[in-house]
Amino acid sequence: MRIFSGIQPTGRKHLGNHIGAIVQYVAGQDRGEALYCIVDLHALTVPFDPAELPSLVHDTAAILLAAGLDPDRCILFRQSDVREHTELTWLLTAVTAHGDLERMTQFKDKSAKQRELVSAGLFLYPVLMAADVLAYRAHEVPVGDDQRQHVELMRDIAIRFNARFGELLVVPEARIPTVGARIMDLQDPASKMSTTSAGEEGTIYVLDEPAQIERKLKRAVTDSGSGVRRAPDKPGISNLIDILAAVRGAEPAAIEREFADAGYGEFKAAVATAVIEYLAPVRERYDELRPDVARLEAILAAGAERARTIAAATLADVRAAMGVGAPR
Ligand code: ATP
Ligand code: MG
């Protein structure tokens, strides 16, 4: 069983990334052959600073290692180090429907937020993501709920490719956590917590100091009512219940029972304590790992080497099946 997932080196990673994706990455190491990719090419789809990008990749690599990725048990690499991703992207555009890309909610959301340029890259983002996964013939893609639609699309792309050119690609499945698949912004619980949008105050970063985490959770937007329970008209409280459930590995219903008689203040304080404890070891290990850039680069280079071997074999098959290049 092969597992693949990608994570962007845009900005600092947050609690949603950690709960929705990174925890699943760590578990994947025991469930199959796991590949995790820091997708610097995806980061070029929105405004970015070329001078910063290399160090953002190092930040993300150190966060992943601090969370428990082990280069002896997974393949951790930087997307741009394996050129097969970009070549396969182009080849897959031949079996990708323009109309499907137009329907992607991430494209609609992110393009609406761009002030200057809506790049073609933002539109093609899901094809690059399909290439990331399909290049490794991965079976499973651990992601948060927001990526469900992109995994559906890559399945359609693989199915269309296989029907047209022969059964070469594996049609992957999304693996989405049952609790915490969509952590919402603390200040705007109608939007997901995000790396690239929204304000600082609504986002808990994995590397936040305890005092910052406490402040953000205490100021989290809730409704004017009372009662610690999930409801459509209580998106703020529902989100905090999900966060506490995910952090404790408990069911949201158990959290509701435990805090049935509690006020919002008491509940928020309990969430803050739990999140601070949960993230503290990651932040401590990050501080140890991040300064050794040479080691981070060595891990990424070794990962890219191993990844390239797998992706190159797929590319050779795909090129031949599509009649691209000299015949084999
Ligand atoms: P952006 O909003 O700019 O796309 P991001 O926060 O989604 O950034 P990514 O690197 O694109 O960060 O996502 C990495 C992983 O984290 C993906 O699997 C994504 O589904 C998951 N994820 C992102 N946001 C959340 C969230 N709020 N709750 C749960 N999982 C999330
Ligand atoms: Mg994202």
Could you please describe the fold and organization of this structure?
Helix content is 53%, strand content 7%. The protein has helices at residues 15-28, 53-67, 84-93, 98-103, 105-113, 120-134, 148-165, 210-218, 235-248, 252-258, 264-289, 293-322, and strands spanning 2-7, 33-38, 74-78, 140-142, 173-175. The longest helix is centred in the last third of the chain and has 30 residues, at 293-322. It is globular, with a radius of gyration of 20 Å. It starts with a strand and ends in a 6-residue tail after the last helix.
| Total beta strand runs | 5
Provide the helix percentage. Answer: 40-55%
Tell me the fraction of residues in β-strands, as a range. 5-15%
The DSSP helix count reads: 12
- Regions with little confidence, pLDDT below 50 for 5+ residues: none
In order across it, which strands form the biggest sheet?
Answer: 1-2-3
What general outline do the C-alpha atoms trace? globular
SS class? mainly alpha
- Sheet with the most strands? 3 strands, parallel
Supply Rg: 20 Å
The ligands bound in this entry are: adenosine-5'-triphosphate, magnesium ion
Distance between the termini: 29 Å
- Mean pLDDT comes to 96
Order of helices and strands: EHEHEHHHHEHEHHHHH
